[in-house]
TrEMBL record:
Transmembrane segments: none annotated. Belongs to the UPF0065 (bug) family. It comes from Pseudolabrys taiwanensis. It comes from the Bacteria. SUPFAM superfamilies: Periplasmic binding protein-like II. This is Tripartite tricarboxylate transporter substrate binding protein BugD. InterPro entries: BUG (IPR005064), Bug_dom1 (IPR042100).
Amino acid sequence: MMVVPYPAGGPSDVVARIVADGMSRALGQSIVVENVGGAGGTIGTGRVAEAHADGYTLLAASMGSHVSAPALYPNLKYDSTKDFTPIGVTAYAPAAIVSKKDIPANNLKEFVDYLKKNGESVKQAHGGVGASSHMACMLFNSVVGAKPSQVAYRGTGPALNDVIGGHVDFFCEQVVSVMGAVKGGSLKAYVVSGDTRSPALPDVPSAKEAGIPDYSINVWSGVFAPKGLPKPVADKLVAALDKALDDPAVAKRLQELGGTVPPKADRGPGPLAERLKNDIGRWDPILKTAAAKLN
């Protein structure tokens, strides 16, 4: 079983189902995905932390469950760096800055000018403090010097729906979540984070192209097991994940959604543990400061 600590249909769930399907084929054994949402991903994550370390319970982890939660939940029942066995990174995804379609801006410069001119009258949605959409917008606002009002939702879906419906003004979220609405004309997209364009939104400039190279956030997904997993079992799961990510069909499905399969050097337990450590160091003070301002 692979536990997704968020509701069905969100970016973590979509990636997990693709990866679980690939790992199932590699193992010759079905991996069932179970959504255990609630409390910012901490309920499902905590369940896996307490599960028996036999290889039959896995976690589809994210920056929310493992980077944001430790900063935002002082009484968290798990330690994201100690209570899990890392299996590997599954995918990276850039963030896209999108707005409701009637915002009077047609490129990033015009959008930033609009944000600065209108200040707190501009409403920025996010899927909850510590969600990838919250983190992506915090960084964007800091880089461009914008100070919009914050409107929190319980997840990506409700936030996205309200941007499309025109109830709030803009949103920063993984390409996998906004790609369809952008291509369908329901949203405007101004930039994607990082140095290169996303193949899923080839007409949208990268942050480097658009003149804001400091807007760099690569949202990752990963697989963990409970701590204490026997090494032979861990090795088998690591190999299955690696084989799944080498499958052209898996890579194609992730790329079509705006994700990137990590190169071999960036997969596996070591790279996942290192990325987690580095991201906690980067985001912990930022998230704690943001949370304090909301309390």
